[in-house]
C-alpha cells in the first residue's frame, strides 16, 4: 500500500520505500563485513519485524538461518508500553554456540530488546548483535553491538511492518501517524 492510499491518516512520510531498501542493503553490507566467514542466525521479532527481517536476509550475501519469536510489550488497546514482556512464540532453533543477530523494526523504550537479549543469552550463543531499522530518541544504549538504520523522532510510526491497532503494516514507507488517526 502506498502512502497516497492513507494520506489523510499521516502527518508525514519519514522514509520512502527506496530509502528503506537502500539502507537495508547498507546494513547487510556492514553485517557481512563484520561477520565474514561466520554463519548467522537471524532472529525476527513477529509481527512488526517480519518485513524487515526478510528484506535484510535477502540482502545478506551469505547463508543465513532465520528463526522467529513473538513477544508483546505493548497492550493491544493503547499501544503504550505495559512495563512487562510476554512471550507469545518461542524460538525453535538451537542457537548455542552460534552467532545471532536480532532483527527489529524499531527500538523505542528498550524494554523488548533488553528482554530478548537476556532471554537469548541464557541459550549460550557465541555472540548476539541487534539490527534495528529505526531508533527513537529515548532508546537506551544496548549492551550488545547494534546496527541502526535510521534515528527517527518520537511519535506513532507506522508502515514497513509497524502498525497502529493492527493497521498500516503493509504501508511501503515509514510514516508518522497523524494525531487525529490515533484514537
From TrEMBL:
GO CC, any one term: cytosol
Biological-process GO terms, alphabetical: GMP salvage; guanine salvage; hypoxanthine metabolic process; IMP salvage; purine ribonucleoside salvage
Entry coiled-coil feature ranges: none
Classification via InterPro entries: HGPRT, Hxn_phspho_trans, PRTase-like, PRTase_dom
Named cofactor requirement(s): Mg(2+)
Domain Phosphoribosyltransferase, first and last residues per copy: 18-164
Domain of life of the organism encoding this protein: Bacteria
E.C. no: 2.4.2.8
Class of this enzyme: transferase
Keyword rRNA-binding among UniProt keywords: no
Protein localization: Cytoplasm
Catalytic activity, as annotated: GMP + diphosphate = guanine + 5-phospho-alpha-D-ribose 1-diphosphate; IMP + diphosphate = hypoxanthine + 5-phospho-alpha-D-ribose 1-diphosphate
Pathway recorded for this protein: Purine metabolism; IMP biosynthesis via salvage pathway; IMP from hypoxanthine: step 1/1; Purine metabolism; GMP biosynthesis via salvage pathway; GMP from guanine: step 1/1
GO molecular function: hypoxanthine phosphoribosyltransferase activity; magnesium ion binding; nucleotide binding
Gene3D superfamilies reported in the protein's UniProt record: 3.40.50.2020
Homology family: Belongs to the purine/pyrimidine phosphoribosyltransferase family.
Name of the protein: Hypoxanthine phosphoribosyltransferase
The organism's taxonomic lineage, starting at the top: Bacteria, Bacillati, Actinomycetota, Actinomycetes, Micromonosporales
Amino acid at each position: 500500500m502506498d502512502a497516497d492510499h492513507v494520506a489523510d491518516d499521516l502527518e508525514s512520510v519519514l522514509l520512502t520505500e527506496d530509502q528503506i531498501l537502500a539502507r537495508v542493503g547498507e546494513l547487510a553490507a556492514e553485517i557481512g563485513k563484520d561477520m565474514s566467514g561466520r554463519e548467522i542466525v537471524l532472529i525476527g521479532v513477529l509481527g512488526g519485524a517480519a518485513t524487515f527481517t526478510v528484506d535484510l536476509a535477502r540482502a545478506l550475501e551469505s547463508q543465513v538461518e532465520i528463526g522467529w519469536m513473538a513477544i508483546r510489550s505493548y497492550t493491544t488497546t493503547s499501544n503504550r508500553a505495559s512495563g512487562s514482556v510476554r512471550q507469545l512464540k518461542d524460538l525453535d532453533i538451537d542457537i548455542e554456540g552460534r552467532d545471532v543477530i536480532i532483527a527489529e523494526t524499531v527500538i523505542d523504550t528498550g524494554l523488548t530488546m533488553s528482554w530478548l537479549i537476556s532471554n537469548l543469552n541464557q541459550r549460550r550463543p557465541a555472540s548476539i548483535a541487534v539490527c534495528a531499522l529505526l531508533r527513537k530518541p529515548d532508546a537506551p544504549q544496548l549492551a550488545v553491538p547494534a546496527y541502526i538504520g535510521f534515528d527517527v523522532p518520537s511519535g506513532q510510526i507506522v508502515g514497513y511492518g509497524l502498525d497502529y491497532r493492527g493497521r498500516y503494516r503493509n504501508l511501503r514507507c515509514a510514516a508518522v501517524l497523524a494525531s487525529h488517526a490515533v484514537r
